[in-house]
Amino acid sequence: MKQTETISYCAAILEGFTYLLEKHPDVFVIGQGLWSPWYVGSTMKDLDIRFGRDRIMDTPVSEDATTAIAAGASLCGYRAIMVHPRVDFMVLAANALVNQIAKWSHMLGGQSHPKVTIRAIVNRGGEQGAQHSQALHSWFAHIPGLRVVMPATALDARDLLIASVLCDDPVLYIDDRWCYEVEEPISAIDVTPLELQGPKVLRKGEDVTLVGSSFSTQLCLKAAGELLSHGISAEVIDLRVLNPIRYEVIRESVKKTGRLCVVDGSWRNCGMAGEIIAGVLESVHPSILLDSPRRITLPEAPAPSSKALEAEYYPSVGHILNEVLPWFRPSKSSEIYSEKGNSHETYL
Amino acid sequence: MKQTETISYCAAILEGFTYLLEKHPDVFVIGQGLWSPWYVGSTMKDLDIRFGRDRIMDTPVSEDATTAIAAGASLCGYRAIMVHPRVDFMVLAANALVNQIAKWSHMLGGQSHPKVTIRAIVNRGGEQGAQHSQALHSWFAHIPGLRVVMPATALDARDLLIASVLCDDPVLYIDDRWCYEVEEPISAIDVTPLELQGPKVLRKGEDVTLVGSSFSTQLCLKAAGELLSHGISAEVIDLRVLNPIRYEVIRESVKKTGRLCVVDGSWRNCGMAGEIIAGVLESVHPSILLDSPRRITLPEAPAPSSKALEAEYYPSVGHILNEVLPWFRPSKSSEIYSEKGNSHETYL
Amino acid sequence: MTFHFPTLGDLANSEKYGEPIATHGVPSDRLLRQLEMMMLIRVTEEVIAEGVTAGIIHCPCHLAIGQEAVAVGVSENLTHTDRVFGGHRSHSHYLAQGGALYGLLAEVLGKESGCSKGMGGSMHLYDKASGFMGSVPIVAATVPLAVGAGLAAKKDNRGAVAVTYFGDGAAEEGVVHESMNFAAAFKLPVLFVCENNLFSSHLHIDLRQPSNSVARFAAAHEIPYQVVDGNDVVAVSEATERLVKRARDGEGPGFLEAVTYRWRGHVGPREDIDVGVQRKSDLPLWKRRDPIRRLAESLETLGAVDADWLERRWSAIRAKVTSVWEEAILAPYPQSSATLSRVYANGQLTGGIQA
Amino acid sequence: MTFHFPTLGDLANSEKYGEPIATHGVPSDRLLRQLEMMMLIRVTEEVIAEGVTAGIIHCPCHLAIGQEAVAVGVSENLTHTDRVFGGHRSHSHYLAQGGALYGLLAEVLGKESGCSKGMGGSMHLYDKASGFMGSVPIVAATVPLAVGAGLAAKKDNRGAVAVTYFGDGAAEEGVVHESMNFAAAFKLPVLFVCENNLFSSHLHIDLRQPSNSVARFAAAHEIPYQVVDGNDVVAVSEATERLVKRARDGEGPGFLEAVTYRWRGHVGPREDIDVGVQRKSDLPLWKRRDPIRRLAESLETLGAVDADWLERRWSAIRAKVTSVWEEAILAPYPQSSATLSRVYANGQLTGGIQA
Ligand SMILES: Cc1ncc(C[n+]2csc(CCOP(=O)(O)OP(=O)(O)O)c2C)c(N)n1
Ligand SMILES: Cc1ncc(C[n+]2csc(CCOP(=O)(O)OP(=O)(O)O)c2C)c(N)n1
Ligand SMILES: [Mg+2]
Ligand SMILES: [Mg+2]
């Protein structure tokens, strides 16, 4: 892989799988749709042909058992990668993930570790409706023992996958189809251990701190570009590791800018956006804040199917601008951007 | 039931069940252990004898199916109450709860409503270990469409159960064995619709706002008593309804006291404590706060079994005092209370 | 010892069961009604397929073209007070049970006047009047809901039954076994209908299960079962009649395995012949097992129909479906407030409880 | 049609199978070894029961007193490179597989030197050296983990097998069926051992399932099965031998249903005779089906043991267990840092990643 080759997020995932399967004979992959040409997009294209159907196993429709089967094999000298083509399907494996895998090391005295990585894909939009659109990372980030990572860039899509699989702890790696076409030049593979990884500043700024993860980070980067045209310098932080969380990079940024706006693709109540706000504010003196923190999340409703409603359901760049610009032009009305549409401010 | 009869939380639950089964022929109860003398404590004592084993159904060990079976019956003219003797078992019903029940009304255009109440019991301590001790209310409060209530008092244990069952929406009602012996004089049954219910101030105060739910509210009330002996007047707010959340009672209190400390029996990351902090701080100007908000939660670890570790695992009155007192005696060291033991401040 | 259940045998052999069906003296008017319902389902799904190809329909559509006889044969024995639950491939179950054609077409278009008011699309159908209680895309998720409806029917004691449609892939979800055990242990009036089309998305059943017949699970749960040619509407109807009668008489649940085959892709209008073991060679043969053609040929031999009549019926049905389709195209979309006002029963805005 | 599986019949009849077991020429030294292991398990659990009654042990203990022959018969055919998984009632599985006695007693006391370092107690046992991979209280949760270990064993291709112990109640969890389908479809070397003691906590199986034999599920999944008197250690061992041999030879999974009965309560030391259908009348009869007495009587007829020998063995074992118990009582508890340092592999404090 040449030094700085431009590659898409989607191709970067395939590169991560290929690296792991080539370099690590103890790695195997198991999940639904791995022999299908479309189920997991092109992120695993022809891996079954190249590495054989014993190492790339397509499975019956049994999420709870297959997830625990991957974990069982990972207790016996293998590094298993369990693939759920949708986060929504992984809900059926909650017992395997939350009651067994996340607690296995702790309850057996730290003597046995499920070296399993569970990859789930956020696949939403396209009028797929409430049960085929969920982003439940906040749920699984709540569970000690389950590391949770969400790549926002092609570099992370590849290197966080590798770091997750080479980590001896269970890791939930969630990628988002809406990031698949994001491209960037990425350097050679860097395998920093996952335990040492945390949030990264992707764009320096002075006036406001924007925090996101996965697709929300892409929204923050676009919003930062538009804010600059308003003379506002936004610092963008990509969370990358959602559990266990490290706050210091975000805290230092908020100390600098005095303003925090968190963008997240899951729901508000007990969601990641609120966690970042609480995590920062509990460790800085309130006087540091020039204004109250803002969070942009899904509305408190399941995803509607009809495109007339779906178009306003997911957080957009417009939502970010509508929250941030009033800070800098308090007199102007907050209804600046049309995409604002269904304002989340219907909350009390 | 005489006007102000003193009753325990546990007996109040039995009264709620008895009222519902007597007054509402469409109510029936289904779950594991309902014919056992110990499974659900004495909260359902002899209901099967009094109302018959067709209305009080003990079930096979099949949480996902039985939860959806209760919901299916509740779509056909019955008000079903599904009982899980432990919150840990309800994890196996995540698909029924989160993918089906919570979304059913929305995805079918608001035309069909699962009139099902899911009662789960927090049963922890006693060296039961990681898989028999969980409090996962933050998880389920994250899901739009699933009302979540947690009674802290005998009055609420009875009346919130009744309000939940009479509400046409799916409601998760979580009671806590550690509250079972809490007693108070309670008035006649008051059936305020659940939609109108929200947080309540249980104890007025001026200097600090303590927010809790279920057993954590009891901890706040005890802490408030001890703080008074230090000349500190603590206002205690019982959350009662965790989803959808109402912030105004808490916000007004924090505006008055300028200090917020939230106590919660679940984990920190994406937990209810952080949600309350974010929900209040995003709607008040930071200058209102005299100090950064505090949260007291479980350590970021599964529950250990050995009593030497278990004793320090759960939030205590000592933890609350150690967070609150330094606000009022900034010079004194924060290690005032021995129970502090395993300080949660090992976080960065 | 090892126990071997009968596999599907010829039922799964694409070269068999292509001949006209035996009508066992079923009155011609009833057979004609079943033929017309199958033709309505076929045409409706062809119109939907065209809508998807043309980019007018966006939500994922899983078509049951080729599998119409199962729904029609089962619904023949049901009333509107029975309760029917479906899955991701449920246009046929919805229409056969009496679900409104307009409601289906408006729903796949995401319109407010859709059967789920535009909130769910093809995979979330609902028609209270006909007893179609709901369908969802999470595989097997409605199976226990139907058992719950069966529990309610038993409590009502008015002879109603609950029906759950699911596929051969769905039998790999543990909740199906939990549901069957519960229905058997409590003797509930539930009919489990497995549409075994030999595929779960791109995977042939031989790659997912040790045997290609799903009825072995009914036997394990002591539930009476019938395994039939799913493309023979009379066979499906007669088997359903026996099982539903037992259920209405309080003798507990029944299980119908109807062997069939989908002509289009797992999802969408294409034939996906390249996807999955054996599809390329099997599909043309299975098309000879066309449930509509096999019934029409039987009726022709009975003199009840002729080629001309059939031609006129096809075009009349096509005209009707097209006109309803055009009406649905013009219908309005839901108001933006619908997202928050349909989460809870009393239309109360989520979180927005005006304190 | 309806299909009726053989029920347990006499196997579940408390008045049957009380006679000394047939030893089929098994060498006496091996039978003696099995007898002593069953006696060790019995005494260990009696000491644990006394610890619970005395309030010294706090964690919930589910005792297998009366069910010892199942674990001993199965483990007779296993090596320390096989992988064994248990559930909430797994003292016998742990000890029979070679788990250290001290590790068990220290663990139920919550000591740092316990087999799980005090972090799990009676319901979370672990002994890597003997191949006991883990046990958990969530019913049926280790069944798929064992299938995963079977998948690893197949990949290793060194003839190892995975074994999962679960109860008749656990068969009501859907994940057991998902696990059996997977093991059958991929022909994995897994032995499913169902200890059918007729109860799930307070509920007799007749109140939870339509038939009292669980082997019908093995048949449905095309998995070879044996149904045996679980209190006959030779019968258990011989049946296990046949099934484990097939698995080691790559012929796929096996299923053993061992019918037995627990003498103590679902949890704790009491006999709970008042709890659950028929226990009051059945328990005394089942006590006559004591796996230890029945083997001891056979050995007496063979002249391998006599009453005096037995008496001396019981007291020698009691003395040994008591001394290990006293050692465990004195052992230290875990340091408070253990709560945060055992969540992740490298002992890194949770959340406390020192940035
Ligand atoms: C819980 C869950 N897992 C996986 C999927 C993805 N999926 C959608 S349809 C389908 C195939 C199901 O096959 P079958 O039950 O035979 O139905 P068919 O499509 O053949 O009608 C799968 C695996 C899903 N929707 N839900
Ligand atoms: C998922 C789950 N549901 C319910 C329980 C409560 N529970 C503990 S043991 C048990 C009985 C299981 O019966 P069986 O599998 O026959 O085991 P036995 O106790 O008879 O050995 C139950 C229902 C649990 N531990 N986990
Ligand atoms: Mg299918
Ligand atoms: Mg049992």
Ordered list of secondary-structure elements with their pairings:
The complex is a heterotetramer, with 2 copies of chain A (about 350 residues) and 2 copies of chain C (about 350 residues).
Chain A: E1 5-8, H1 9-23, E2 27-31, H2 47-51, E3 56-58, H3 63-74, E4 79-84, H4 87-90, H5 94-107, E5 116-122, H6 137-141, E6 147-149, H7 154-166, E7 171-176, E8 183-186, E9 200-203, E10 208-212, H8 215-229, E11 234-238, E12 241-243, H9 248-257, E13 260-267, H10 272-281, E14 294-298, H11 307-310, H12 317-328
Parallel strand pairs in A: 2-3, 2-4, 4-5, 5-7, 6-7, 10-11, 10-13, 13-14
Antiparallel strand pairs in A: 1-8, 6-12, 9-11
Chain C: H1 28-53, H2 68-75, E1 83-86, H3 91-96, H4 101-108, E2 132-135, H5 142-156, E3 162-167, H6 174-185, E4 190-196, E5 199-200, E6 203-204, H7 215-220, E7 225-229, H8 233-248, E8 254-259, H9 279-288, H10 291-301, H11 307-330, H12 338-341
Parallel strand pairs in C: 1-2, 1-3, 3-4, 4-8, 7-8
Antiparallel strand pairs in C: 5-6
Keywords:
heterotetramer, A: 348 residues, alpha/beta, C: alpha/beta, six-stranded parallel sheet, two-stranded antiparallel sheet, 8 strands, binds thiamine diphosphate, binds magnesium ion
- Give the CA-based shape of chain C: globular
SS-based structural class of chain A?
A: alpha/beta
The overall pLDDT of chain A, averaged over residues, is 93
Q: Tell me the series of helices and strands of chain C, N- to C-terminal.
A: HHEHHEHEHEEEHEHEHHHH
Q: Low-confidence spans of chain A: pLDDT under 50, at least 5 residues?
A: 332-348
Low-confidence stretches of chain C at least 5 residues in length (pLDDT < 50)? 351-355
Helix content of chain A: 25-40%
Bound molecules: thiamine diphosphate, magnesium ion
Give the quaternary arrangement of the chains: heterotetramer
Q: What series of H and E elements makes up the topology of chain A?
A: EHEHEHEHHEHEHEEEEHEEHEHEHH
Major beta sheet, strand line-up of chain C: 2-1-3-4-8-7
Q: How large is the count of helical segments of chain A?
A: 12
Strands of chain C, total number: 8
Proportion of residues in extended strands of chain C? 5-15%
**How are strands sequenced across the largest beta sheet of chain A?**
3-2-4-5-7-6-12
Task: Tell me about the largest β-sheet of chain A.
Answer: 7 strands, mixed
Mean pLDDT of chain C: 95
The Cα radius of gyration of chain A reads: 20 Å
Distance between the termini of chain A: 52 Å
Rg calculated over all Cα atoms of chain C:
20 Å
